[in-house]
Amino acid sequence: MDTHLEFNSNDDRFGFIIMDTNKTLFGILHGNIRDILMEFTVDLPKKRRYGGASATRFTRIRKEKKLNYVRKVSEMATQCFIRNEKVNLNGIILAIVAEFTSEFNADDVFDPHIQEKLIQRVVISYGGDLGFNQAIELANETLVNVKFVQEKKILAQFFNEIFKDSNEFCFGLNDTMNKLESGQIDTLIIWKNCDLIRYVLRHIQTKQIKIIYLQIDKEKQIDNELEQLEKISLIHWLEKNYEKMNIKLEIVTDKSQEGSQFLHGFTGIGGILRHKIDYQSLNINEKNCENIDSNIDDDYSAFFLD
């Protein structure tokens, strides 16, 4: 299924709650991959009544079991999606069969952290894995819009730093990678179609390590005295290592006005830097400043010389 390939970078994560009258599935749509976190079944009384139980009593029992089912779905959603009191998802889609529409009309069904991340509710015809596929298709437009809004928001922050002349931004390959190596970058932004390759090279005689970034058709420019130790797309390398370097990675398109400006005016790669600490305003003496400085700027050079 390719419905989400256009809008999801590998860093986009959307939670899905797929609920029918037999079971509930909790899943994650991450880039091009669907992950099923967990699922559980339920045994609800059927709509038709059998035996001698009165219609009123039967209806009451079924209603109570449905409410208990909804509560369990809410509890399991908390377990699946909340870590350290945070929901690390771009959004959550609630997909339910028509029978449960009224049960989810209230705003307090889920934990508030889950509730604020709900971006759409869709009605599905199936549960389980088939329902997961159907929910992705039904929510396609919403998922595209969420990505588009997120992209515009992060680029607005980038341009705001430039407008303020805050010195808390960088752009261009060399400046951005230097700032990344020295641990100054908080959020690295890169165009999704960036075709730069990261080469780790070693001089045959001196054994000195060197890292360069070239487009694939420029590989012939590499000196013959340098042997290749590693060759990987810059975007893929960032995706593999950004969490280890404690930065946020934003992969953007050029489909918005901001994205086009970022690509054509700022080379398609840049970053928002970590905030500087004003030691004078904090009344910290110079000696203590030196001690703090040595600790706050992490050195990530190991990522560039491995």
Q: What does this 3D model show about the protein?
A:
- This protein has 306 residues and is an alpha+beta fold.
- It folds into two domains: 13-138, eRF1 domain 2 (Nucleotidyltransferase, domain 5); 154-304, 2-Layer Sandwich (60s Ribosomal Protein L30, Chain: A), CATH 3.30.1330.30.
- It contains eight helices and 14 strands.
- It has helices spanning 55-81, 112-115, 128-138, 140-164, 173-181, 234-241, 257-266, 286-296, and strands spanning 13-19, 23-30, 33-41, 82-83, 86-87, 91-96, 118-123, 169-171, 185-191, 196-203, 209-215, 226-233, 248-252, 269-273.
- A five-stranded mixed sheet has the order 3-2-1-6-7, sandwiched between helices. Strands 8-14-9-13 form a four-stranded mixed sheet, with helices on both faces. It has a three-stranded antiparallel sheet with strand order 11-10-12.
- A hairpin with a 3-residue loop joins β1 and β2 (23-30).
- α4 (140-164) crosses α7.
- The model is unreliable at 1-10, 277-282 and 284-302 (pLDDT under 50).
